[in-house]
Amino acid sequence: MCYYYVLIINLKMRKFLTILLFISAQLVGSAQNPHFSQFYSNPLYLAPSFAGSTLGTRFVLNYRDQWARLPGSYISSSFSVDHYFPGIKSGMGLFVLVDDAGSGKMTTMNIGYQYSYKIRATSELYIQPGLSAYYYSRRTNYSKINFADQFFGNEFLGSTSETLPKSSVNHFDFTVSAMGYTENVWFGFSIDHLMSLSPVLNSDFKYPDLRLSLFGGLKIVTKRRFRNKNNETIHIAFNLRNESKINQLDIGGYFFKAPVMVGLWYRGMPIGNTFSNSDALIYLLGIKYNRFTFSYSYDMTLGNLIANTGGSHEIGVNYVIDNSKKQARKKKFRAIPCPEI
Q1: CA torsion angle 44 47 48 53 (round to 10)
Q2: Across 234-252, average pLDDT
Q3: What is the span of the domain harbouring residue 251?
């Protein structure tokens, strides 16, 4: 789902004039969150319950170029690091997100702390609640944004009668989550932007709407290799989100045969929305070598925009110092069996 409104107007002397209405998100409601197609390779953005989920130390870098063919750039990037502390059965992490919409027209930044606690419910089932506290900042550069009343035919008048809100929004926010998992199955939920639950703040445009995510997955071992432990596996996962009365679903999977991963995903919600949609098919190629995992995905936009957007490109880099075997022997804990990219 693209979180920026795009209006394409056909003019006499030009084939298309693209006016990017980023500010409309502020004028009619709260701004949406950036989305990563490889949600499973950006675990701390998905839910704070993933902090420490490898039972070791993990570094994650994600980069997304949304709709590369349109004028301006729509770049989302994130970095996170997390570590598991066995003495207190806790995972902790730091997360940074930067979303640049329209070459500086609207910039959003999140900087936060993640915490999770591991609970062994049964011999097979583990529960991992999580909490994130972060600083939210959104800035709009009005000098780079044009409105309809600034044009008279093909002539640019240079002034607008729009009443503009503040160019800068800054506040603290929180996320809670919980996750359960067994050896081959994982499932959970997260609730983001908890500040909007306040009856005083929920009508304030600067606080984004509550976002609910339901996610989960399944690991299927298709061939076991006892000598090098590089089993051939199929990972299936989904992420269902609700925000601002809009539902969106990502679902798909990938096949791993060391060192290569290939996958296919679908993003859309054909039913259950006021305006049903099929957004994109997502093709994935990844390589895992020792502690490094590199992945590339391409979003092929569906629907009427397929010929105009150029699709989206996304890169994920994952580096893990794995202590899962050591912790499993000492504390009888398992790492979460979610996709490795």
Answers
A1: -70
A2: 91
A3: 6-331
The CATH number that applies at residue 36 is 2.40.160.40
Q: Which long-range contacts (CB under 8 A, 24 or more apart) does 309-313 make?
A: 309/67, 309/68, 309/69, 309/70, 310/67, 310/68, 310/69, 310/70, 311/67, 311/68, 311/69, 311/280, 312/37, 312/64, 312/65, 312/66, 312/67, 312/68, 312/280, 313/64, 313/65, 313/68
Which residue is associated with the tokens 């730091």?
Answer: 94
92 membership: H or E segment, kind and range: strand 90-101
pLDDT-derived band of residue 3, with 50, 70 and 90 as boundaries? very low
Q: Is residue 341 part of a domain?
A: no
pLDDT digits (tens, 9 = 90+) for 105-124: 889 999 999 999 999 999 89
> Is residue 336 included in any domain, yes or no?
no
Please give the angle made by the CA atoms of 174, 180 and 181, to the nearest 5 degrees: 135
Tell me the pTM: 0.81
* Within a domain: 132: yes
Give the total number of structural domains in the chain.
1
- Whether residue 196 lies inside any domain: the answer is yes
pLDDT tens for 59-91 read 999 999 988 777 767 899 999 999 999 999 999
Q: How far is CA 65 from the centre of its chain?
A: 13
Alpha carbon 103 to its chain centroid, in Å, reads 20
